[in-house]
Amino acid sequence: MDNIHKIPFILGVFASIIVGLAGYKSGVEYRDIYIRMSISMIVFFAVGLYLKKFIIKIHDELKEKEEEALKEELLKEEERLKEEKALKEEEDSAKREKGRKIDIKVEEHDEQELYDEEFRPMEVNTIKLNNKK
């Protein structure tokens, strides 16, 4: 980008050199050659300024487009990460809730309904202790 700022000067100098050489070869007086060289230098310097502004404008537009594309890409990436994080949090909370949910119901049953037919609890009403001293 540094060389772009030199374009007007370089264009003006080369144009004036070419005009000077052409005038010298054709045998024109030196005064006329100097006038033509200065006019061509001013005209081509102005053309160089226009060209420099045009190139800088194109460069800035390309830079803006790249920045916009980068911002869009970052936003999409950020959105994707948020979605993944939300899904992960949903899964984690579902796992936590699944582990926490304990459905305890206490129903009143008779003692007979509580046990199987084969199992009878031991009656402890009468315990005999044999104390031999």
From TrEMBL:
The chain crosses the membrane at residues 7-27, 33-51. Residues 59-94 form a coiled coil. Keywords: Coiled coil, Membrane, Transmembrane, Transmembrane helix. It comes from the Bacteria. This is Uncharacterized protein. The lineage of its organism: Bacteria, Bacillati, Bacillota, Clostridia, Eubacteriales.
